[in-house]
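Database export, one record per block. Field names are fixed; values are copied verbatim from the stored entry.
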Amino acid sequence: MSTRLPESGIVLAPLAGGPTTPELAAAVTDAGGLGFLAAGYLTPEVFADQVRQARALTPGVLGANLFCVHEEVVHEEAIAAYAAELAPEATRLGVELGEPRFDDDDYAAKLAVVLEASVEVVSFTFGCPSMDDIARLQTAGAEVWVTVTSAAEAIDAAACGADVLVAQGAEAGGHRGAWRDDGTDLPLLELLADVRDACDTPLVATGGIGDTAGVLEALDAGAAAVQAGTAFLLCPEAGTSEPHRAMLARPGVTAITRAFTGRRARGIVNEFMREHPHAPSAYPHVHHLTAPLRAAARAAGDAERINLWAGVRFATARAVPAADVVASLRA
């Protein structure tokens, strides 16, 4: 069993794009959970500063999540067609569309940050790091967690030396952690059964866990701990935007979409999702394309034009301190 799994069994999901803050990560750790920082979309300098801030706020164990993105062939014509489709959105919001392009989210520089800062747990999403990178982290004293969405990914991650597998069920909010944007979505309990049969690496379960009943189900299915994200979005320590908070507090449904980033992700259904159902599979190209739209809409408080990442049980989220959420989830 991993020595870094929290005794409470509660892990904060890395909520990239704003919701994760040093204050939220530290509060979860101080409450007996494992707080995570999210490197995604930050510059290496800002990420390093957030690690320093979190270190100053808690003496406990912290985790950090990195994107592990590999360039794949994309259809330029499909991206251009989607840009043309979005042009009226840009005009309406008074901005220009961004330039679609590939980048690896400054992977090497962010890996250097976690190594230099001696972050205790480093997790990866969208892929598995190389065996060399895993070995470097482990030699530096870090534990390596890899997000998986299938038994095949789990077998490969275990073979590369991952210490823990984060099994992400279809119910999870935000981006699918699948290594390929291919539409593989197993419900959490089914995924846990498949992965448990495939390898004996410790599992952290994530996806639609918003109450103690969900925690107990995951533990009974073989998980050693659970990772919750949506449950923390309304916490005062979270950096969740005001329009996002407002939509989380209202009735609604979630669905999986590529409309905002070109990669499948679950969010609360809004007008943008309904009006743009055929975005191409092209990440992070579409993310860069729509970034100015989302920034302008967020600044204007327009919840119908921003990504509202949330899991299927977002209605269970409460606007209470992070410590209270950890306490409410403890099995």
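Remark 1: The longest strand covers residues 62-67.
Remark 2: The two ends are 18 Å apart (CA to CA).
End of record.
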